[in-house]
Structures are given as structure tokens and as C-alpha cells.
Amino acid sequence: MRLTFPTSAAALLAALALPALALPTGAFAQAAPAASPAAPSQDEAPVLTPAQRTQRVEDHITQLHDELAITAAQQPHWDQFARVMRDNAANMAKIFDRRGARLDTMNAADNMQSFADVAVQHAQDIQRLATAFQSLYDSLSPGQKQTADTLFRDGAGPRRKR
Q1: Are the CB atoms for 56 and 48 separated by under 8 Å?
Q2: Rounded CA gap, 120 and 99, in Å?
Q3: Rounded distance, CA 72 to CA 66, Å?
Q4: Three-state DSSP string of the chain
């Protein structure tokens, strides 16, 4: 049995789940240094500090709030959704930090298990995010839903074309 998931929905959820990590190109393969004095190559994204990651999440949350024109009545649904976004970003940062700390001593089997652990955490986070988003989406006006549909179809992440 083959399960299908609309590409736009998958892109939306992935973008919402990981807006702030900005992991380097080889994030699965290498640990990020605590501070890198050298500028990143053109092939790598800059390694963000924890404070920069947190700020990126907050900026993303603020941007979505503004673009969706969340009303006072919708704020409780929004707050729940934003909390899940923050929690997801923290969860992924922890799992990548654990992976990075162990990377140099991992054998191939450990490395594969680490990938599996990341995928499991990501799937759990996406499910929580989808549930929180459904509650928010149900509270939106038809116009807001149209805006959300457009934003999320185009990719609601920091790399979205503007």
C-alpha cells in the first residue's frame, strides 16, 4: 500500500517545523562548530548561534502572524500553534546537537540510527504542528484561509519566493 501526501502540504509542514535551524549543507554529516571565524563557503549556510536560531523562529512566527492578520479572537489558536513551532525548533536543535557531539565517534550503524532518530523526532513534531495548525485554520475567515493556502502552497519558510 502506497501512502501519498500532497507535495504542498509536505513542504508547508517541513517549512513550518524547521524555520530557524539554518543547518549547514552537511548538517547530517558534520557537527557545527561552536564559533567559526571563517566565512562559510558558497555551498554552506551560515552556522547560527542558539540566540540566532531563536530569533529566526520568532521572526518567522511574527511574519506569519502578520501575513495571516490574526485577530484577537484567533489569538488563542495562534498562541498554541506558535508554541508548537517554538517547541519543534527546540526539539530539532537538541537532536542535531546530540548528533553533532557524537559524530566523530559514530560508526556506520550509529550514524544510520542517528538519521532514524532525527526522522522520528521530525515526524512527531510535524504531527503536533499539523494538529495545532488545523485548530488555527478552522478559526480563520475565508479570506485568511485563502491567504494561508497561498502562503503555504508556495512554501511558508524563510526561502519562500517573495
Answers
A1: yes
A2: 14
A3: 12
A4: CCCCCCHHHHHHHHHHHCCCCCCCCCCCCCCCCCCCCCCCCCCCCCCCCHHHHHHHHHHHHHHHHHHHCCCCCCHHHHHHHHHHHHHHHHHHHHHHHHHHHHHHHCCHHHHHHHHHHHHHHHHHHHHHHHHHHHHHHHHCCHHHHHHHHHHHHCCCCCCCCC
Res. 23: pLDDT tops 50: no
Q: CA–CA distance from 105 to each of 27, 30, 92, 94, 96 (Å)? A: 16, 12, 21, 18, 15
- Identify which has the larger pLDDT, 6 or 62: 62
Contact 18, 89 (CB under 8 A): yes
pLDDT (tens digit per residue) in 104-124: 999 999 999 999 999 999 999
**What is the C-alpha separation between 61 and 39, in angstroms, rounded?**
28
pTM of the model: 0.68
Between CA 8 and CA 24 the distance in angstroms is 24
Cβ contact 159:11 at 8 Å: no
Q: Are 28 and 115 in contact (CB under 8 A)?
A: yes
Helix 50-68 to helix 75-102 angle, to the nearest 10 degrees? 150
